[in-house]
Amino acid sequence: MADSETRVVRTTVWSPGPGCHGGCGAKLYVKDGRLVKVEGDEDHPFNQGRACPRLLALTQYVYHPERLLYPMKRVGARGEGKWERITWDEALDTIEKKLKDIRDEYGPESVLFCQGTGRDIGGPISFLAYSYGSPNWVQLGLAGQSCYTPRLAAMSVTFGDFAVLDAGQFFVERYESKEWQPPKCIIIWAQNPMSGCPDAFQGHWIVECMKRGSELIVIDPRWTWFASRSKYFLQIRPGTDGALALGMINVIINEGLYDKEFVEQWTYGFDALKERVKEFTPERVSAITWVPADLIIAAARFYASSKPAAIHWGLPVDQCPEGTTVAQAITHLWCLTGNLDVPGGNVIARASHNVTTYPFDSHQLLSLYGEELVKKLSEKRIGAQRYGMVRNFRGWAQPDMAIEQILTGDPYPIKAAWIQTTNILGGQAADLRKHYEALKKLDFIVAADTFMNPTIMALADIVLPVATFAEKESFRSWWAPLSVVVPAVKVGECRSDWEINLELARRFNPEGIPWKTVKELINERLKPSGKTFDELAAQGSWEMPPEGHPSRPYRRYEKGLLRPDGKPGFRTPTGKVEFYSKTLEEWGLDPLPYYEEPPESEVRTPELFKKYPLIMATGRRSPVYFHAEHRMIPWLREIDPDPIIEINTSTAKEMGIEDGEWVWIENDRGRIKRKARVTPIIHPKVVMVPHGWWLPETEGKEPYLYGIWEYNCNLLIPIGTQGKSGFGGGAYKTTLCRIRKMEKGEV
Amino acid sequence: MKVRYGLLIDYEYCTGCHTCEVACKQEHNFPVGRWGIKVNEIILENFNNRVSIDYLPFPTDLCNLCSHRIQDGMLPSCVKHCQAGCMKFGPVGELAMEMEKKGKMVLYTPK
């Protein structure tokens, strides 16, 4: 309760803290300079007062006794856990000198700038990398860059923009908006939206649509809460989503269920697509995917005949083999049915008010950094020579190649890593051991984060303490509303990612950085909105795009709001939605979607399958954790205490495994242990192994590293399985394994 | 007669996100092990080869319906923050009327 001594700061949430991709509104209660409580902001349209467990546990995060509070340098060997407190000046001076020496001797490309998943980091870290001069900005460890980038690329080449399920999120009035209507049918494709804010989308928006009549088709190897409430549940074999999408297109085209007017007027390459999907009959697709043919047909008919209908998809799409082309096929579904940029369909999503914070695509990259720099950087970016999409879309280096290049030094040596807001060894790195061994070879490693973790313990030379969202100034335009992150408290000597990176960018590129403060930089970026940081903060931290603005729906292709020349149509080479992608063709890729079998499977590697007869899918989300974070937060850990494995009831019975027993999960790459959760929700031929598990309460020093060698499922997952585009295909959902009950005496 | 207040849960829409639990812990500063409300999971493999997954929050004896918040004109913390918007607070009589309109609801009357 806000008594006279308590101040309430209204802000928009963007990590660190809850950790997710969301942009919820929060009210931070501050007393005597200390955060005492957090509430959802009922006036903020993103969450309308609601909040998740991670936001509500924020005080335990901000004031956690183990939080990093001041810069440190390593004084023992890497992994010994011997650290000494230093000043910010010493930390920044050391970093500046070391990185400038490396730049002089080996070139700026010899430094990797590593981040974890999106959130409020892409902006500051790419800004720093480019100010230093390195093209190697990378989600190191994320095999195939298999998180959203493949889906973004697929949408971009198909219709020149991105789109999301329309839950009224572009309007202040939300579900009461007169312009909006709920989708009649929603396909939830490979996600459990209950667990958080994936891709700037609050999962519970779908619940509001359900209350307003939306019926569900759910595609997942696992029964989720949404699956249990679906009209059709397609329990799919992991990694085969591409075949299912092509099969659904086959049904929709052959039964004449597509939107003929939209296809006629606004699309290119329909006949080629029709030809391509001929071979994907429901019967053949059923054999590939485990989904009965009649269910494929029924789902395709229901989706295509419901108007409007929308698809909400998840990261497993990216982690299918050839993730980009899988996403392309799913994109075609909403284009074929005329559900693009219509109320209750898949609505085009642009950065709010055209404010760019984070280069989602090459258009934004060019507008942020200019053609000359982007071109120069593209020449040396790891993977850009091999992959047209890595060269031309978004600016990521290719992660699987980057880790190999540390080991080979070919075509040039990698000498240092800047690791910011990513716990590579505890989190995203597939083939964990290779990442550990390769990164150990680097001459210099800086890590910036909020807590000590296995990556910092094993590798860092300098550690920088990072501010949570409650302690910092930042901004957000992904997708709407445009919002600012307003500081409420100060903790230790923590600094925000923007603050750290602006200071270092200035040291690396004094002529190119005119801004003296983070707020000046933010105000510069906010210019297209006509608002300043302080103005947005004063009005509650957010603003929706105004009527008629290109970042506000609907049917912008009819109004000439999408193309740079102002003509109706789409930002593609033909000006149309391209089922046959001219851009992919130019990049040397198949212009049409296709299907590829997982790298390990009963079909592709039958001998291996005899030895390892279960499919290990990893990565199902917990509502109380974000990836490798939050295991040290008492209110959250209490709810989800153990690293588990979900095993189907019948499978467990065959193996004599009972609920709560410990098991080994094994393949040729190693073994880890997990506690069995015996449940009917997972397919009998699949086990689900949640990722991001390390135990902050256990020994951190080498060789233990908080238990990563015992519990981290990524030990069993290969790298180098990326798709032909360079993006997609990380085998996080499709690796084969076997499980074995732990015998007495084994630990 | 004193009006009795209650919590109405629409369990058709409770997703089991645990928000109510942590909202309650923050509001009352409960340590690990103490709960003012606890979410129960009911998973059954029974209906025509389908799996039913339901969640039902249960207010414990520590629940006082956030009386201090109510005095200030606010909702109980669990109700306010519920991500699914499936909880209601109010006089028991009014909440019972809501139950007339829709199925899959349960009404609690904490002490």
What does this structure look like?
The complex is a heterodimer of chains A (747) and B (111). With 747 residues, chain A is of the alpha/beta class. Chain A has four domains: 6-62, Phosphorylase Kinase, domain 1, CATH 3.30.200.210; 72-138 and 357-477 and 493-525, 3-Layer(aba) Sandwich (Rossmann fold), CATH 3.40.50; 150-350, Dimethylsulfoxide Reductase, domain 2 (3-Layer(aba) Sandwich); 606-741, Barwin-like endoglucanases. Chain A has 28 helices and 27 strands. Chain A has a seven-stranded mixed sheet. In chain A, strands 23-25-24-27-22-26 form a six-stranded mixed sheet. The longest helix of chain A is centred in the N-terminal third of the chain and has 19 residues, at 88-106. Chain A starts with 5 loop residues before the first strand and ends in a 6-residue tail after the last strand. Chain B has a single domain, classed as 2-Layer Sandwich (Alpha-Beta Plaits), CATH 3.30.70.20. Helices cover 27% and strands 32% of the residues of chain B. The radius of gyration of chain B is 15 Å and the shape is globular. In chain B, 36% of the residues are buried. Chain A binds chain B through residues 1, 37-40, 42, 49-53, 56-57, 59, 194-195, 202-204, 207-208, 210-211, 223-225, 227-229, 233, 623-624, 634-636, 638-639, 649, 679-681, and chain B through 12-13, 15-19, 21-23, 25-27, 31-33, 43, 45, 50-55, 68-69, 72, 74, 77, 80-86.
Number of helices of chain A: 28
Task: Categorize the overall geometry of chain B.
Answer: globular
Distance between termini of chain A? Answer: 49 Å
Largest sheet, strands/sense/barrel of chain B: 3 strands, antiparallel
Strand content of chain B: 25-35%
Helix and strand content put the structural class of chain A at alpha/beta
Cα-atom radius of gyration of chain B? 15 Å
Describe the oligomeric state of these chains in a short phrase. Answer: heterodimer
